[in-house]
Fold each of these.
Amino acid sequence: MTHRIGKTLSTLGLGVVLATGAVSGPLVGMAQAAGASDTEHERAARWQEIAKSIFGDRQIAQTDSLVKIDAPVRALDAALVPITLTMPKDGQIKAVSLIIDDNPAPYAAKFEFGPAADPAELKLRVRVNNYTDMHAVVETQDGKLYEAKQFVKASGGCSAPMGMSDEEAMKGMGDMRLKFAETAPGKPVEATLMVRHPNFSGMQMNQVTREYTPARYIDKLTVSAGDRTVFTMTGDISIASNPVINFAFKPDGKPIQVAASDNQGGRWQHSFNPPSPTN
Amino acid sequence: MTADAVHPRTFGAGPSRRHALFAGLCLCCLPTLGRAAESFAIEEVGPGIFVRKGLIADATVDNDDAIANVGFIVGKTGVLVTESGGSLADGRWLRAEIVKRTDKPITHVVLTHVHPDHVFGAGAFVQDKPVFIGHAKLTEALSARGEFYRKRLIDLLGEDRTGPVVYPTMSVADTAEIDLGDRRLTFTAHGPAHTTSDLSMIDSGSGLLFPADLLFVNRIPSLDGSLRGWLTEIERLKTLGATRAVPGHGPVAVDLAPALADLSGYLTVLRDGTRAAIAKDVPIEKAVTSVAAEQRDAWALFDTYNGRNVTVAYQELEWE
């Protein structure tokens, strides 16, 4: 199974092209997906290999308190699988990585938290290409690593055609919205960041030329409250198109800055006024 | 008016190991455990118009993906196939039913949209060299998804029963008309709705509308184009002058107005519920279990498709 991993593991690089397509409409139920028949042992061995390529020889301890992954056991749409990472221990988490073991580029995203972050809960949407284990690995402030996992049944998410032309998919690229949930004063504010970007996986076929659309994905996304960083995300092709990220931050009344870049040199920056602290 | 019905035949085999592999699919909906496509009846729903009701199920190893309402219209100069079938095997079955009833040439095959249960029967008609009629956007949609659908179907049915991806040879960007000598078929290319390649047709001989999957009856609609667009196209279907229609899924013919009312009822609840969820910051993973839940008893296969419909709707509506 090592051939699935490719050589781009240790960095968040472009994954290898493997399969075609995901389904929309009738065919939803006909899954005999790749990876469906792997044994527990095979999955564990694959994870060992991936973990080593990302984290080297560092020890990773199991945890059921520092991080928890919530994902649907069976994805309704393999190209948009909602993931919630819960990290309840305030102040202890430095970074979290999400790894989708059997995706062509398994290292889906890494979030490094800054002083304005409240990492208690983080949501994002990913593509899932196979029946796979998903791992969340947190790094605590003292530099230790802890992992949690969840098994997800989905298939074809990375190669799912977007159902529109590339031009249409790229319309408004870089547009952003930031929505704030109502919050009691003095509490962290929950926010939803939406970014218009096709996040082409490199595995989707161009509908007109019948060639693969080159991968074009958000590789860096930084959110700051004033001068203080909330988080920096390093992303890859496993993030679903039009990325949406829910996070929480500690407001100080200063504008929220969002800076995004993609692997083809696209750069976008937006500023948002946070809810008034007196509210 | 009823054509010779072909009665269900049961093939002896009991549930096989492959059934177990597809656990979770609705095998209970199948009339037999044999080859379902060979156990269908065809009904004459109008003069010279024959329709077979598709199974209210998803594609399985046993049903040849014969889940859509397929059929044909016998005109003076030739036969127009209204829907080709869900696999080569299903298309061959349909072709055999045509040949049983008429020796007129098969001159036209309509590919109503990109979904596999509507296009993979086309391979059975290639030998007749018909005009394959499709929406102007169908070619690009098929080139994006056709091979993927084909692989999926091969996993299920095997290569021999699946067939090739067949592309339209006549594309309809707005409207078009076909003359079969004694009747005219008028086509309308719709904006993004059920999919981005929906083509409807009206027969001048009977006044029947063939909206394909722009109209689901009893079976829950699946959303793969645009929710707002679909509600718009429903209004357009109402203006085409038809009172009866052959839906893409459901009974072979229905009164159009109440069927459209049921459909737009579901789609409206889906739209409004999804909008409300977005407005209240209900995340997508919670919305999929709550939005449109009140429609559950009204639709077959609700649990298979509703959550997915909410997912598609959410992505469309969150940017409003």
Amino acid sequence: MNGFFDIPSDLQHSWLGLVGLHLREALLPVLAGLVVSLPLAQLCVRFRWLYPPVLWVTTVLYAIPSLAFFVLLIDYTGQTELTVMIPLTVYSLVVLVPAIVDGVRSVPQETLAAATAMGFGPVRRYLQVQLPIAVPAIIAGLRVATVSSISLVSVGTLIGNQGALGNLLNDANIYNRPELAVNAVLSMAALAILADGLLVGLRLLLTPWMPRRTRTKPKAGRPDPAVLALEDAAR
Amino acid sequence: MAVDRLSLDIPDRSITVLVGPSGCGKTTTLRMINRMVEPSEGTILLDGQDIQQQPVNTLRRSMGYVIQNAGLFQHRTIVDNIATVPRMLGWGKDKARARARELMERVGLDGALAKRYPYQLSGGQQQRVGVARALAADPPVLLMDEPFSAVDPVVRKGLQDELLRIQAELGKTIVFVTHDIDEAVKLGTMVAVMRTGGHLAQFAPPAELLSDPADAFVEDFLGADRGIRRLSFFPATGLELLTGPIVAVDATAEQVAARDTAGAPYLLVTDQEGRPLGWSEPGELTAGNIRQAELLPYGRPFVAGTDSLRSALDCAVLSPTGWAVAVDAEGRTAGVVSQQTIGEAIRGAHAERRASDRAAERPQAGKDSRVAR
């Protein structure tokens, strides 16, 4: 394919430049979404009645098409990256808030009771017990939010070429160069898979305490749990 | 109302068990002691001081708490789980971990488990970690809320024995909640039987509970065999053991004939080391040719020095001849005893207990916690 990475000059970026731009426009909203979701989710856990309305609002916001968002925002933020990133931030809430709420709620009652009985205050209990145990659920939410954000950035092409790799789709059309569209799709797919893989790696790193499903047979050096249980029974 | 006008004097350095049916307020009572439940009225005194007067988290860190299913922090290693309270009290990491390892040994956990996570441990092991965690900062008071309910009976018995051993070493003031009356009788120095609404039905040492239940509710709760169970508080040391009707498997005809069978219709055959093999009628024994397969089974022997009258009676009931076999700690036959003799010993023990009860008032329990509502 001739000129696969030969990016038209109107985009003012190399292919790598577009990749960097794309990642920034996709990941910053997820990060911002996480920063908003954490306290919001904690409020929903603390005040149970708040959760259904919050869920309703985030779902309704998610239903607003991005184009409508752009029309609303363009008066205030203009044809900038910010106009793309604000809707993406809002969209990420629909995944992140329930993920964090479910994660925090999944902490067993006896674990919470034990923490309280050992003299954990509410803040310490949240930071040292609830949040760490919610990490797998939070990262599961982040994976969905990140992948969808990476794909959604491309609509930014509609407001003055703010769609990073998505701009290639428009250029493929106007310059009649279909390989640019293929480039856009493949690059975005690769970014999404890469980002997802990194998040999985992050979870493995942060949660050594989770049972690993892949390790079905205990290694030689590690005693079989069943044997340990028997030893315990024999005591 | 969960707990109503409960007044309880919990003695120092002993195990007080709160027992009762579900919903009787025993857990609520326990949680009032570390203020996880605040009483709407009344006071709880610890060593004469109102627990409401000190900061709640300071109070809680001075009391160990063990819960059903252990409630371990699944995201922390075993050693860090145990070191939680010392770390919160400002101990250094190394000191707290060293203390945690020491406690693992104390509760019978292999040190190799220190770096494991809770999911890698069996239920019984997790419960041991729960006990170690509660003991970590060496609190004078230990609160235990149905700690052994969720493990199987074999593991539970092991954990109960371990708790009694640890208690003998450390002498904590333990408040233990259970719905299992057998557990209460086994572990408790004092047992508080509660009924719905947090009313105290009876507060007494287990032996007294079994001999003199305060009312129909307590009697019903204790179950049908409280008379038999009470026998576990009487040692079997006083039993008169007969050594006459015992013969070794390699005995000669003269030795067999010389056995004093006046008291017993059967002879117990033992091996050369003195371990019991089985019973036989004297006439059926042919010296030098004793066929072990034809001997009557002897059931299960009891250990003469350490077992209770309950074990002795159980052995006699299990034995087809109606005679129990007593052995020493090594399993060698110490003697045999009939159901009739055990029955006399039981009557004697009851009479003796009644006499001593009349002679001395039960020593009054010391100060400590007082739960009221």
Amino acid sequence: MIFFRQLYAIIAKEMQVEWRTKETLSAMLVFALLVLVIFNFAFDLQGVDIRVFGPGVLWVAFSFSGIIGLGRSFAAERDRGSLDGMLLAPVDRGAIFLGKAFANLVFILAMEIVTLPLFVILFNVPIEWFPLVGYILMGTLGFAAVGTLLSAIAASTRMRDVMLPVLLFPVLVPLLVASVKLTQGALQNLPFSDYQGWFNLLLAYDVIFLVVAYLVFEFVVEE
Amino acid sequence: MNTKRNWSDIWGIVTLIAVMVGLYFAFVYAPTEATMGSIQRIFYFHMGSNAASLTSILIAAIAAALFLRSGNLKYDRVSYACMELGVLFGAISLATGMIWARPVWGTWWTWEARLTSFLILWLVYVAYMMLRLSSANDPTIARIAAVFTFVGVIDVPFIMIAPRLWRGLHPVLFGTNAGGEFTFNITPEMLTTLFVCIVAVMCLYIWLLVQRAHLGSLQAQVAELREQYGE
């Protein structure tokens, strides 16, 4: 029971900090929009089947923009020295991880809730919402779990801003490919059996990395 | 200390002989492949370094687990050495593979499942090196790097599966012609050569691993002495 109270306290603290400034979230939103615009120029996406190429564009926007939020998650705490305070408090390390991961999940989802309609409008994509939203949620869950752990790792190095993408992207490749494939399947209205392998892969990735990140997190923040 | 050095010197000589024998097998003993010609001979060392690179992350993860359990920096040095050798042998494997693929497949690189998986794994090794080099003198880096090794090794099955789902598995190396892909039939002499070369490269790998871990402990001693005498 006390674990959930701690978890709630961490999540509430994260939300409050972000709500007061809204710095990270606004940066993520602007960045995601910029990625969409740049892709439009770089690939000249007029005339191609956007249901095939669109998912790639969308997930690059999601992941690049998400990394900005993830990078701030622990770097800001280190800068303010507030991480030490949190670690000194009698709080379960697992609760810190889950609270942080949940807050990151919420921030990334908030960015995606704005970016997805923008994508639909800007690229004129015919869209089916039903399975798509579920797949995006699944992809984002794994992304937030691995991202939170690696954000903590990157924040303890000297080159923290550069380090996170370098560490995160190689690990993230299977998740990104699976998410793109699922998004493609949903946009093209393919039968589920066509991409069920990807669904299973993403589900396994989410579960395994959430558990592993939860278990190893204490080794990262231990001083 | 001294006997330790002696053993590693003896292993060095064993390695030298093994590599010489491997070269003899690859260049003299093995018959020239009918369609590819002599370029196929690079394949023996390609497979050896490939195997060395693939096993690196497993040994590194085991060493990292032992380090986190015991806090003994010896295991961390082994883990670090493994990941570094993973970068080295991975690069050799990628380079020799490209040299082989250019005349045989007509292209330096193709996004075939096996190649794609290997490249992503190699990028994980490189990411680890970046992490290590970014804060070489930080005492907490060993623990953080061990955690990243775990993340990497857990990612390996996904890295192996995802490109196979993406491209489908194309058997391009041995056996019968499966999907109209280019294949060759391996003769017993070639198989023997392959085996000898893999053993030779593994000897070299172990020798380098021991040397690198030893170098790490010397570096740690130097750092300790520096601190002691206040430089």
Amino acid sequence: MFGFRDTALVYLSYVVAGLLVTAVSFALFALNLRARTALREKRWRRLSDRWRAPVLLALTEPSTMDAVHDVIPPRDRLHFVRFVLEYAQRVRGNEREILGRLAKPYLAPLGERVWSRHSEVRTRAVRTLGMLGLPDHTDEVVGALDDPSPLVAMIAAKSLARKEHAEHAADILLYLKRFEGWSRNFMASMLASIGPDAAPALRASLASETEVIWVRAVSAEALRMLRDPYAADTAAQVVEIEEDRELLASALRLLSEVGRPTHVTVVRVRCASPDFVIRSHALTALGIVGGEEDIPRIEEALGDESPWVAIHAARALKAAGREDILEELADAKGPRALLARQVLSEEVLR
Amino acid sequence: MSEVVWTVIMGFNYLVLVYFVVLNTVYLGTSLFAFGALKRYAMRMKSLDLDDLVTAAGAPPITLVAPAFNEEATCVESVRSLLTLDYPEFEIVVVNDGSSDATLQRMVEAFNLEAAPRLPMASLPTAPVREVYRSRRHRNLWVVDKVNGGKADALNAGINLCRTPLFCAMDADSLLEPEALTRIVRPFLEDSRTIAAGGILRIVNGCEVKEGQVVRVRMPGNVWARFQVLEYLRAFLSGRMGWHALDATLVISGAFGIFRRSTVVDAGGYATDTVGEDMEMVVRLHRHCAERGIPYRIHFVPDPVAWTECPESLRTLGRQRDRWQRGLLQSLMRHRKMLFRRRYGRAGMLAFPYFFFLEMLGPVIEFIGYVVFVISLAAGRLDGPIVVAFLMVAVVMGIALSVSAVALEELSFRRYPRVQDLLQLFVLAVAENLGYRQLSTWWRFRGVVSALRGRTGWGRMDRKGFGAAK
């Protein structure tokens, strides 16, 4: 018994000694890290101070660009790229192009880092090349759409989703399936940032029955953000024949933005959907594409069991120019009065 | 005392020794997981431009729900801080939960509030709402005045009025950093299964606050607040980050967490019959999704910061810890079905047993352990090696853990810029094991006892306000 206890205590003392060493190592690690970070930050401040003035001058007077390269020693080239990247994130258009030209001579090593074993290194390289290295490094960035890490692929897609690179819209759509876990709204917004030139590819994606359903829904959302009038017929067709909730809701939202009175029949059918999400969006669309004969149907929906449907109906009445109905309700009592008063007081329709 | 009793007492001493070893080994394990996860996270954040990723594209609108009860000292500054948040689209719903002080008047005057119609979008039961106000100056600021019903009830009232897909549950006396929402929303963008994400809480005492923002981070002057700085670092960077790395997050702080509204409403909203409504909600979300086969993820994100004022008096601190322990016990006992059940995944197989045996029952074992140890020592029943082993395991392991938490802070965020603050944290890491930890054990033990007695109150919390919290 005592032999066992003594042995256990000996082992325990080893553990405690090990922990003491661990604690001291942690402390030394932290202090060392603090010292190294302080040195690194000091160096970075010194470099930034040296580069700030010539870079800002080059942004206002591009003829001085060559002078910038004189203050970049070979060992600090990648630091300079990082410095330029921080500026490039905050500017657009011509200024970003100038920053890209300033960084251009130093970007080649990043082309190799796109193949690094570490996904963080690849992410950084793709982001830098996407921001500063297009179109010279287009191959690397497009290639990164196929990267094993979805994050790297997303950074590549985000880099390519710009108005000046609209030709890559189809590439991005092709690889969109990889991002199934990502927020749909995020992806739609990314695609819409390409601008109207992306619309044909998006319309094709929405219309394609062989395309993945959620990709079609994302395409519909992007078309809604672009307010693409040519997508209305496709959206109406989707509303007529498809049954997937996500796709239907997106197509109805698209019709709310670009639909025409000719689409009213398919929208009316969906106003009776048992799914409150579909009913809500159908009513909003009906407020846009419907006529006077649809007002009773919308008014009836003010009493829907779902508050979401009711609020969409009230907003639909407002969009249809029938605020008089809401005003009448607002003067009465009960929950519908509160609903009417709320919608009448809203500045922006959500 | 008979020899049989002494045998039992000595056996208990050994049990406590084993408890300390197991507890600290688990802590060290989570610290190691946290170390790897934080390192990866820091590298990942360096390689991303969050603004570009979030604000430029499809960031979901968020409603901030901030319950306020007798917060006249801090509510205006807190709301001002919320209004400066750097996020594309958000609403603020402050719920005045029947305050008996001038919280509502302060808000009405400061933000020029007027009564405004707003339809509830959910029907979670709550105490009656007296009036809903909207700011004439800041159109995204709403204040709900309701009859007192407790924090959970106030949160439910805010959720009822929420019309965005996500809501942020927070305390009205917390200060969110401007980019906090941008950072905490990231998991919702990257993984559509995400139903909740929690941020980190840091202690504002001692920091310089201007116009609702922390402009200079400093260690507090008050010694109890200093210990809490270290505790928070350990709890969030070692604990929650470690459990997140294991995909078993069981707690999101009530002071700063973001949730998918529809899931919370489907799960029935916050429970109003517990003082640990934040933990209970997360545990219930695990159950709700697991039992219905809904794919879900719950995240901890280590860099979105909410600054909060911590108690500076022992009495208030003791009440807070007592309440936390009661909340923990109530949540775990209510959902004890999850214990070691594979159906609930890692939450049921790893995190729940840890919280159940080590966090809930731990203080009882530890407190009785200290008492029994002293009795045994006084009776001369303990020999030198055992005494040394007990102290070493209780103290040295604690020191190692706290120092590792400071190292994790240094590895990742370095919020305390002065070297003297870093050194102070190391000194605290040693000092807290020589009295403060035992005091904390006593408070938690008291919490277990009061929970078993059925005590339900929150206890009074004294606030000084951000300008005064030094």
